[in-house]
């Protein structure tokens, strides 16, 4: 019997919903794919047709959550906002979407940070990275800035992952320390951009 | 090069060169040069700069003492250069976590010393005063969302994205509730309260090498009091409670307006208050008020202070000018109760004793009071300390000791007080009750504000009316 794309998507969503429940109840480490399959009312092996590992489930959850963040960002933009404010909003919109997964999101951060993971090894990590940086570049362009250099892009992504890593383990009330860290990181990055840009201008004959 | 603590301490003026200017002091110039070159604040050093001498919140007075010395004989071009250095230093400091709040407070208070500090400095500080380094709206949106559970646009009928005032450790935005009331929403920078706590630990660690010096424990307690006060200012629920308590003390015919609190829109980090119209002291003075109008507002301020003290057992510590609103209808707006101190029984007893000696005007009683306050024993080596402290006390309370109207517009007593304060610090005569630093800040700021107002008022009738609430009989 052929499975329709709609049925496939429905199963995928059932697995993701069951995984969220299991991760919350038992924690990421203790939750098993067997438990997830049982709750999703599918055979244990079927989970692997959709996700090769528990880690892959988390990456899919993160990617799905972040898909809606772009729209949130667009809704909250306001005219006259500075580059700092917009980059902050870009990241904070994502954090709000990711919030329900915060306690087990370290998996995503580790996957994205690990030197052993090469670009292309995880489709979801790559998709998240490309989408996020593309939007950051668009914000940059909206503020009449030249295209971000490779160094600037790398610096930005590193700061972003550092923030995410901090946020997933942030014990402060309502993760207020992460907000302060985000504010200061974005400020620092924009200041660095301005310096880079003025250095380039000076070097031009 | 990293500036070390020893260099910092070496830069503090000592007895031999109290009157030397910064221009002549290469070490201090070097420190400022270092500061101005640094792209990012040197956290530990910059904090120490503010926190040095164990008088974080009253560092402004010491700084002021220095500033006055620096500029007294400097050439114009040198003044400009020094002003730039100061501005750079302040800008660096204001980027640092809660020190944004501490620097803001220093600026707010220094701005009062308008005729004693060069205009350029005052202007820089005034900018800090009413235009705190802003939280942009995206950050503010997250704070409101986290605290009130929705977007500012959803919770309020209107929310102004630009702040209209700096609050200690945050900023204030105008908004309108869906029920129509105009409000001021005070929003705190995230994480500041806990930064203060961790910094106290760091500073106490840094102070460890001094633990064997005399008065270490006492100075540590004073520092702790400052931090506790600063930390308490970050608790807006506490401020809401005190604002409500203060509001209940005033009737309509007092002509003193304390804003209403909207608890359903308030948390520990967001405080929503009734918006109180009125101008600040600068604008009031620009309108060229008559002496009568100046006195009228000074009397209202004293009335408010005594009412809070005698009837509410609350000490309104924070006399920076932004907290007083001068209204066209003659009413006084009193805002910001974050730094109001609820008096302990011991502090209440000190207050009773101080009030008594101001009534009896008995010099021996004043000396005994100062001796007890500073724990000065009979040792002859402490005679100078006692003499300076008594003079400081006499100047602080002159308006309440002297008969009839007191002329606050004479700058000399305030000048002498700041000189004395500097001298007491330099000579390390800093042992005192743990709340001394708060009271010093209050006293200097009070007189500086009235100096700017040019007030000439008789405090006694106000005190006599308000003291009835205490039931004290000094007879």
Which key phrases capture this entry?
heterodimer, A: 205 residues, mainly alpha, 10 helices, 0% strand, B: 475 residues, alpha+beta, five-stranded antiparallel β-sheet, 21 helices, 12 strands
What does this structure look like?
The complex is a heterodimer of chains A (205) and B (475). With 205 residues, chain A is an all-alpha fold. Chain A contains ten helices and no strands. Chain A has helices at residues 5-26, 33-40, 44-50, 54-67, 69-76, 83-98, 106-113, 123-142, 150-168, 176-203. Chain A is elongated. The mean pLDDT of chain A is 87. In chain B, helix 4 (59-72) packs across helix 6 (99-110) and helix 17 (383-396) packs antiparallel against helix 19 (412-426). The N and C termini of chain B lie far apart (64 Å). The model of chain B is unreliable at 1-25, 27-74, 87-104 and 106-133 (pLDDT under 50). Chains A and B meet through helix 6 and helix 10 of A and helix 8 of B.
Write a brief caption for the model.
The complex is a heterodimer of chains A (about 200) and B (about 475). With about 200 residues, chain A is mostly helical.
Query: What oligomeric state do these chains adopt?
Result: heterodimer
Proportion of helical residues of chain A: over 70%
- Strand residue content of chain A: under 5%
* Cα Rg of chain B: 22 Å
Mean pLDDT of chain A: 87
Please tell me how large the radius of gyration of chain A is.
19 Å
Low-confidence stretches of chain B: 1-25, 27-74, 87-104, 106-133
Q: Strands, helices and their partners?
A:
The complex is a heterodimer of chains A (205) and B (475).
Chain A: H1 5-26, H2 33-40, H3 44-50, H4 54-67, H5 69-76, H6 83-98, H7 106-113, H8 123-142, H9 150-168, H10 176-203
Helix pairs in contact in A: 1-2, 2-3, 4-8, 5-6, 6-8, 6-10, 7-9, 9-10
Chain B: H1 5-11, H2 26-37, H3 43-51, H4 59-72, H5 76-94, H6 99-110, H7 119-130, H8 137-148, H9 152-155, E1 158-159, E2 165-167, E3 170-176, E4 182-188, H10 192-206, H11 216-233, H12 236-247, E5 256-257, E6 270-274, H13 281-286, H14 291-311, E7 314-316, E8 324-326, E9 332-334, E10 340-342, H15 345-360, H16 363-374, H17 383-396, H18 398-401, E11 406-407, H19 412-426, H20 436-453, E12 456-457, H21 460-466
Parallel strand pairs in B: 5-9
Antiparallel strand pairs in B: 1-3, 2-3, 3-4, 4-6, 7-10, 8-9, 11-12
């Amino acid at each position: 019997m052929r499975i329709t794309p709609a049925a496939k998507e429905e199963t995928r969503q059932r697995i993701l919903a069951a995984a969220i429940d299991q991760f919350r109840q038992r924690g990421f480490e203790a939750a098993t794919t067997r438990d997830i399959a049982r709750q999703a009312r599918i055979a244990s092996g079927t989970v692997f047709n959709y996700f090769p590992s528990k880690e892959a489930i988390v990456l899919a959850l993160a990617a799905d959550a972040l898909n809606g963040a772009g729209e949130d960002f667009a809704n909250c933009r306001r005219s006259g906002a500075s580059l700092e404010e917009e980059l902050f909003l870009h990241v904070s919109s994502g954090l709000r979407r990711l919030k329900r997964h915060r306690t087990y999101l370290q998996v995503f951060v580790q996957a994205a940070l690990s030197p052993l993971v090469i670009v292309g090894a995880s489709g979801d990590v790559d998709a998240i990275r490309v989408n996020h940086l593309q939007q950051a570049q668009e914000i940059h362009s909206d503020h009449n800035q030249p295209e971000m250099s490779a160094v600037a892009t790398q610096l930005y992504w590193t700061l972003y992952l550092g923030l995410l890593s901090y946020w997933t383990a942030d014990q402060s009330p309502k993760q207020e320390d992460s907000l302060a860290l985000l504010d200061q990181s974005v400020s620092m990055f924009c200041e660095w951009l301005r310096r880079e840009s003025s250095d380039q201008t000076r070097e031009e004959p | 090069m990293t500036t070390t603590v020893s260099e910092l301490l070496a830069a503090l003026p000592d007895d031999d060169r109290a009157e030397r200017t910064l221009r002549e002091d290469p070490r201090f110039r070097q420190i400022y040069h270092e500061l101005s070159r640094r792209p990012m604040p040197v956290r530990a050093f910059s904090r120490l700069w503010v926190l040095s001498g164990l008088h974080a919140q009253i560092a402004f007075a010491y700084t002021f003492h220095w500033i006055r010395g620096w500029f007294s004989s400097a050439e114009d071009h040198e003044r400009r250069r020094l002003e730039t250095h100061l501005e750079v230093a302040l800008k660096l400091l204001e980027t640092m976590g809660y020190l944004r709040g501490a620097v803001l407070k220093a600026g707010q208070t220094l701005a009062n010393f308008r005729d004693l500090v060069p205009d350029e400095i005052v202007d820089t500080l005034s900018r800090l005063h009413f235009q705190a380094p802003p939280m942009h709206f995206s950050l503010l949106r997250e704070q409101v969302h986290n605290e009130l559970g929705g977007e500012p646009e959803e919770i309020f009928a209107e929310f102004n994205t630009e702040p209209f005032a700096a609050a200690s450790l945050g900023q204030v935005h105008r908004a309108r509730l869906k029920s129509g009331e105009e409000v001021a929403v005070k929003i705190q920078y995230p994480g500041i309260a806990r930064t203060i706590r961790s910094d106290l630990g760091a500073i106490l660690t840094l102070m460890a090498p001094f633990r064997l010096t005399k008065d270490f424990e006492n100075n540590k307690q004073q520092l702790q009091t400052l931090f506790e006060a600063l930390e308490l200012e970050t608790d807006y629920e506490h401020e809401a409670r005190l604002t409500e308590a203060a509001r209940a003390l005033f009737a309509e015919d007092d002509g003193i307006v304390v804003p209403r609190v909207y608890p359903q829109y308030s948390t520990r980090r967001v405080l929503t208050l009734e918006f109180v119209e009125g101008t600040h002291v600068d604008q009031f003075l620009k309108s060229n008020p008559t002496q009568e109008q100046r006195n009228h507002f000074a009397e209202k301020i004293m009335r408010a202070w005594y009412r809070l003290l005698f009837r509410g057992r609350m000490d309104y510590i924070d006399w920076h000018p932004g907290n007083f609103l001068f209204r066209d209808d003659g009413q006084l707006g009193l805002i910001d109760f974050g730094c109001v101190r609820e008096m302990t029984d011991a502090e209440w007893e000190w207050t009773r004793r101080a009030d008594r000696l101001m009534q009896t005007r008995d010099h021996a009683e004043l000396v005994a009071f100062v001796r007890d306050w500073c724990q000065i024993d009979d040792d002859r080596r402490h005679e100078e300390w006692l003499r300076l402290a008594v003079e400081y006390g006499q100047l602080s309370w002159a308006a309440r000791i002297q008969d009839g109207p007191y002329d606050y517009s004479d700058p000399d007593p305030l000048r002498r007080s700041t000189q004395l304060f500097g001298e007491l610090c330099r000579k390390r005569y800093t042992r005192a009750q743990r709340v001394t630093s708060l009271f010093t800040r209050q006293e200097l700021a009070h007189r500086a504000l009235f100096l700017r107002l040019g007030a000439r008022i008789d405090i006694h009738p106000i005190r006599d009316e308000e003291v009835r609430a205490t039931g004290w009989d000094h007879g």
